Amino acid sequence: MSWRPTGSLFKPVRPITLSTKWNLHVQRCRRQSSLRTFQDDPQEAPDNVPIRQQLKDQLKQKKAAKKKNSKYDDHDAMGKAWELTVGIEIHAELDTARKLFSSAPTNSGSKPNTNVSLHDLAYPGAQPIFQIGTVLPALRAALALDCTIQRESTFDRKHYFYQDQPAGYQITQFYQPFAKNGTLTLGEADGISRQDGDSVDIGIERVQLEQDTAKSLVVSGDSTLLDFNRVSHPLIEIISRPDIHSPATAAAYVRKVQALLKSVGAVTAGMETGGLRADVNVSVRKRSDLAPEDTRLGQRTEIKNLSSLKAVEDAVKAERDRQIAILESGGTIEGETRGWTVGGTETYSLRKKEGEVDYRYMPDPDLPPLIISQQLIQQLQATIPLPADTLVAKLVDGYGVTEKDARTLCNMGDGERLEYFFDAVARTEDLLGSTDMTARVGRLIANFTVHEIPALMTKIDLEPQWSPELIPALQLASLVHLLHTKRIHNSAARVLLAKIFETEDGASLSVSELAEKENLLRSLQTDEDSPGTDSTDLIDDVVGPVSAQVFEVNQKMVNDILVKKEVKKVYFFVGLVMKELGKQGKAKTYDPRDVSDAVQRAFWDKYGP
Amino acid sequence: MRSKLAQTLSSIPTRSIRLPQSTLRCSSTKVTGQKPTPKPQQGDADLNIKEFLSQPTWSVQSLVPPANDSANERPVSAEKLRHLLRLSALPEPKDEKEEARLMQDLASQLHFVKEIQKVDTKGVEPLRAIRDETLQAEQEAELTVEKLQEAFDNEEVLGKYHKRIRRRKDIPVVDEDTPPDWKPLDHAKRRQGDFFVVSRSKEPTP
Asked: Where is the Asn/Gln amidotransferase domain (chain A) (predicted)?
């Protein structure tokens, strides 16, 4: 699942009106892509076109308004008077071969009640045997959360009777968890609330190993079906400190923990398949009642089993509002466990909260302490995959990738796009024979990987499956090499990409042979003689005369623009000029956006004030 | 850490092992409600040990509440009693008579627990289990890279530039410890297809 930050994406920067089908497609790609990454010169065209400035300002305003709506959650007077505090417990299924205390396999695809050992069903006399392979994903998860690993930790029994737990107790780590005192830093890009500023640190109190429960299936009548395949599947429970003060940040925290666990290979599944569940502890207190150093929180309630990020955010919001409403009408909050239905508007009471004493925790006498060597921790620390924030910084600073694209690269799929990106960059460097241009080509390659190739995939197939073989990294490298050495135009690069992807030739010919065959190499060679010069003059030389012709033929339209101030009609001319260039066989050698700019320049040069 | 058991044992006053005849006679089931009265000692300053041993310092009788202890007849509220029964998955009392009996049982159990809690355990680590606590045993239990070699072997690193660790799913996991002829559903009281079945109406509230 890819996740993208809200707000600034997918905005059409410069609308263009073009007629051919391909150009419509290009237009669509553009809407999805960051146009600026294609430009040699990131500066905007001169400000002599008021219409564009106008449109840009409108977009800016829209964006600002949207940002306010979606991110500012501590709304109005209510939010100012009350402080919300949230602590989160996340249960994540570890990716292990066997269960926590038996040698039964964990495969999720098996028939119900087949991956079950005697101990899993609590047969009398069956002993728990800790499966040591479990510590690898558990330790990686704890290290990714910046925790201190305890050399010795112990297992305890938490007693309660329920059908999904045959032993009458769950084995967990209550007294001595294996990891403590972690931190997770959430930044703006993680989607935190505005009130948290640029970043906020969420403390991780502890991470403990424990058993999962069986799956209950409610069927009609009064029966519940039980599948014990999941019983005793290894879980980690990650308990945060009450450092969260907004619903958006609560969801951001869960999202980031999920991504982090996945990136270090600790878990196989996310929330969407039930591999991760969150319980949130919510309380509010009145700000005016507080001395600055007062750390006492209001009475909290726990909302259990939230299985999506939206559920986390919505449930926290709803529970905050419920508690404030009760307190404002003079009531008191009951300590209790509450539930949340997806798509609901209110939390509902499940049961009175059981106190810790009710679980009658006791050390499990059947299990020896877990002892983890320093050498094992060091080995895991040395080989742990880099966290996304570090990768993003590396991509932005070292490869010139925009932060937005860098985040997308890191979050897309299973990391295979990032691998593809690095592969293509390395191959391009080989072709260039230098690593001096890494930042320049890195940006281009990121743009192709994040925007252009997915756009092509969507065009061909409605449910495309990514594969690095769609456009082999070497071919993308060759294409970027042509683009970087100005042998092809941006628009030609897109056409060429599609040719590599779609045609027989794409597989048999080299990229430059294909470009030559498809007549996509740049028609005007001046650039190569003086690389780095702005191509504005060249395009104006071609577009200028064509534009002059179409203006002559359509005087009425010119008057509409000048007299009636219907300035948007200038795009009508862009379409006509493109058509004309098409007749001359030159359409593909220019970037339509460059043509649009040139037509507008030509218009205002001729008729402007 | 190492000698938890030894510490625990040494903290128990051994001299109280010797109990007077009167106490032994009225032990477990029957309770007289009288404190054991030590025989008055007749001088003999030379035999301090004899005198010492003749004075019991503790009696098993202290673990049972005195008869007609009306103050502790209802150690908890009826509501609390039901809460405790529910946590233990035990049935609620059918009538007041049964409730009174349960209260009485609870009272004597609580008395017992309170007596045990009087033992000073300051500085004594709880004994979790009786096991080998030698340094050698700890070293044997310590998880090292070498001990986890099999688990490491079952992982692979994907990617040349962006390395990712994945557990290999193509290695079959054989459960050698579970008897091959045992089927989990064999002892199910109710089953439906591949599932165990429980009745919702009888479900205790979690």
From this structure: 420-603
